[in-house]
Amino acid sequence: MKKKIVLLAVLFMSLFVAAQAQERDRQDLKITTPAITVETQIGAFAPLYTDALSMGYAPSISAKVRYFLNSQLALRFRTGIVSATSSQDYVPDDDYEEIALSVKSNTTSMGIFNFGFEQHFTGTKRLSPYAGAEIGLSYAVEKSSIVSDNDNYVKRSDPFMGPIGTLFAGTDIYLLENLYCGVEIGASLEALYSLPSTLKIKTNGHVVSTTSENSSSVTVFNVGLAPVFRIGWKF
């Protein structure tokens, strides 16, 4: 993962230097009229809540669509996913008649709807810095399972949902007339409310499934330590 982060950083810096070196010889490539952009965002340190919603970080990927009303103001829609999986196998000692177990956990967090705006500021012919805010709905599922070598298991699923608000800042770097890249970093406030959880137990071929309701909630604050690399196309 560290090697990938370094490669992304080197790639971004190379593109930035190349764009700045050609600044004087190229026309203004920034958006000046109403336009639509579509992009992909990739991050390595997105906040993720694992093990009963404790704090963690995981890779993320998201898609964003922007509609520029003019050269300074854009509306945006973003959706993405953050996921992490861990597993551990328990192998019994040959001297004891124990059952081998496989313990797995998976937590996935998805921003279902995120709407917001961007205010762009004066930069250069290729560089367009911006800041803005967005609000949306976040959905997270924490799954865990314990599976034995005789096919018995215990599986649990705990979903959470709640509103999320984000403040962010970033920059667009236009490489060609329609191609751009950039970075973005932000801080968000999120309230997660638990939804009915599911528990499945299989013993000797018999499966028992139960659903429970839980009204607990947790409020979390994400400080802006989740930069993302962006690349997109202007239509």
Walk me through this protein's architecture:
The protein is mainly beta and 235 residues long. It has a single domain, classed as Porin (Beta Barrel), CATH 2.40.160. It is 9% helix and 66% strand. It is built from one helix and eleven strands, in the order αβββββββββββ. It has an eight-stranded antiparallel barrel. Strand 5 and strand 6 form a beta hairpin. The chain is elongated, with a radius of gyration of 23 Å. The relative contact order is 0.18. The mean pLDDT is 77.
Question: What is the C-level CATH assignment?
Answer: Mainly Beta
Structural class: mainly beta
Question: Any idea of the CATH topology?
Answer: Porin
The beta-strand count equals 11
**Rg calculated over all Cα atoms:** 23 Å
Portion of residues in beta strands equals over 45%
H and E string: HEEEEEEEEEEE
Please, what is the average pLDDT?
77
Number of domains: 1
N→C terminal distance: 33 Å
